[in-house]
Amino acid sequence: MKKLSVSVLLLAIGFLSAQEQEKQIEDVVIVGNRNAKRTKLETPVPVDIINIDKIQKSSPQTTVQDLLNYVIPSFNAVRQSASDGTEHIDPMTLRGMGPDQVLVLVNGKRRHTTSLVNYQNTVGNGSVGTDLGTIPVIAIDRIEVLRDGAAAQYGSDAIAGVINIILKKDIGGTASLNYGISGRNDGETYQAGVNYGASLGKKDSYISLSLQLNHRGKTTRTQNHNLDIFGGNFAYDFADNPAAARAADDAIIQQRGLTRDDFNFQIGDAQIKQAQLFFNSEYPINDRFKLYSFGGFSIKEGQGYGFRRLPSETDNNVYSIYPNGFQPTLGSKVYDISYAIGAKYNKNDWFFDLSNTFGSNTFNYDVSNTVNASLGAKSPTSFNAGAHSFLQNTINLDVSKNIKNFNIAFGGEFRFEQYDIKSGDETSYLRYDVFGNLVTSDTDPNDVVGAGGSQSFIGFSPQNALSKSRHSTAVYADVSYDLDKKLNVDLAGRFENYSDFGSTLNGKLAVRYEFVKNYAIRAAVGTGFRAPSLQQQYFNNSYADISTTGNSIVTKGIFNNDSEAARALGFDKLKQETSVNGSVGFTLKPISKLSITLDGYLIKVKDRIVITSNITDDRLAVYGVESGRFFANAIDTETRGVDLVIAYDWRLGGGNLNINLAGNYTETKITDFHFPANLQTPQNEFFGPDQINIIETLSPKTKATLGLNYGIGKFNFLVRNTYFGKVIRDGYPFGGVQEFAPKMVTDVSVGYDFTKNINLTVGANNVFDVFPDLQIYENSYYGVFKYAPVQMGTLGNYFFGRLNFTF
């Protein structure tokens, strides 16, 4: 696939000798357009290069998204709690945009997204992202993060930037064993990985195989000191006196011969178990023709938790089964498969690359420790709640040639996508009367006791089930011009046609000019087009959530844009987003060991696709929900920001000190609202303060990291401080507005090379045990949610030990 025309800046914080550092400074850009003469400080837009092998040795983090979160300030990923599927797949963002506005590549080829829609009012609400956690860290050589729009080069979902993951191809082996645990003796992490590369019997041939096993234990970060456990309204009677509420509950607990632990909420990180197998291979037939293939398989099993159902909630609990109430468990089985095969051919310095890339993601839901309350004592306590899946197949042909100072490239792409929802067990979604019959319009209301469906996660029904597909065709061309490494000009254009959304033409112009040796200015401007994902078009379900009054659990609904409910309320059909992306920056290299880049950007998105707030309307009652949400082109947004990266390599005291300072400021504002003409609802229900908060202020506007890595002899020392700016959380409609103060998280580690092949590293993430501010009472669901999963999350300090081997 064509290479991005981008600038590369070293942001690797790993164990680098002076010789290795100098060699990396001269590395050539291999993503971008096909001009292989450019080095990373000679291209028009910024990219970070993360050397995974070296960073992973010294960093406490064990997954791709966590590693990027602590070395790239414009990248954000925060684990969520009690948020259905989003608790099992972390949404990630770049430059404050949505997860669906970041394109992920593997070896330069488009990677498929997940089948999951984020809809639990987390970061990225209403969007569909890519699960970076499905790719094993042990298989990765490096990651290149383009911090600039690239829709004209790669396609419509590259509005915020591109993350390109390069797999290992070295001959030989590496292995890693990792153990970690939080300072609260939970969240145990086990990780074992091995990578082995071998020749296929011919020069320049290779096959690299990687196996990784992971286990992350659950954490508990909650309090229930004033929870109304037994339905005596103690929490409400003593809302202003938590001690009195706790004493009232404790008196009843003692009378029943129980302990408060019998009623604890499980709120924190979900438990995740995962196995991953990846490969990367290439085989030259002759000097001109070579075949390649790569891909992998991942299976992830998660276990998260919903809201606790109290004994007093007769509509949601069956007292004979759970006399003390219960907290449902949401289990996931996520299968992720990818496979690419291609051929490269060189004829008279014309380079041809033909490939087919396949990917699929299937998310299965299982709910346990729960009931279908309408079945009473006959209810099962575990349910298969259904599944959703997404499939993508992409065929690419890319052609390029370098002619003196010019590089030309062109090609085409055909992509097929399919999205499916499958229904679960009947008891996971149906409602019954006291005689065990299905509830119909003729059922006597006096014969119906208890809510239908599996509590916490209502299963997908045959009315939710569907299978939808589409295809798109694209052609592109780009031309670059280099004049003695002083002036670089890139021009790219892309035409795309979607079977369901018509055609679009997008372009990009990028320029770099070195006005004094080692001092350059760079700028770029481009347009973008993003069609709604199939998931945004067709996802629909019923789910349990806190009522609009905030004092009970009710059923709410998400309706697809083509549903009867959407038509009844007057919603317009979804259409594409359009965008304009501009950037300007400077690159400086005043001395050989010091590099500085400063880049500002502006991203405007028109008709941005989001999910609405909960709309309460009498016309939705027929669907059995309290309120409904819909996908809509509801807003226009404008994002402004700046990135600063400074890297310095210093010979100090017989060793090498690598200093990296990186910072980002991003601000997103909603510039306009688009209300359906026939929708009769106030703005606070269509796109209210809670949704505005998610777009504008729920992620840190400011984030910075200072990494100091010192290697001397057989020792390596890392100290890294990461600053997370303030965020604001709006608990509307039943909570309040709270500002969370800025926080600083410190990582430390010490590594020792026993031999040239064996290294031991020990250290800590968040060594000073920093947490977000405690939530205000009205946002904490009566004291249960002690912390909101914002900024750095709610893990607290985490200590680890890691053995690394090469062979």
UniProtKB/TrEMBL annotation:
TonB-dependent receptor plug domain boundaries: 40-162
Keyword annotations: Cell outer membrane, Membrane, Signal, TonB box, Transmembrane, Transmembrane beta strand, Transport
Occurrences of domain TonB-dependent receptor-like beta-barrel (ranges): 300-767
UniProt-recorded name of the protein: Iron complex outermembrane recepter protein
Transmembrane regions: none
Keyword Signal tagged: yes
Record-linked Gene3D superfamilies: TonB-dependent receptor, beta-barrel domain, TonB-dependent receptor, plug domain
Region forming the signal peptide: 1-18
Location of this chain's protein in the cell: Cell outer membrane
Similarity-based family: Belongs to the TonB-dependent receptor family.
UniProt organism field: Chryseobacterium arachidis
GO cellular component, one term: cell outer membrane
Domain of life of the source: Bacteria
PANTHER family: PTHR47234, SECRETIN_TONB SHORT N-TERMINAL DOMAIN-CONTAINING PROTEIN
Matching InterPro entries: Beta-barrel_TonB, Beta-barrel_TonB_sf, Plug_dom, Plug_dom_sf, TonB-dep_rcpt-like
Membrane association type: Multi-pass membrane protein
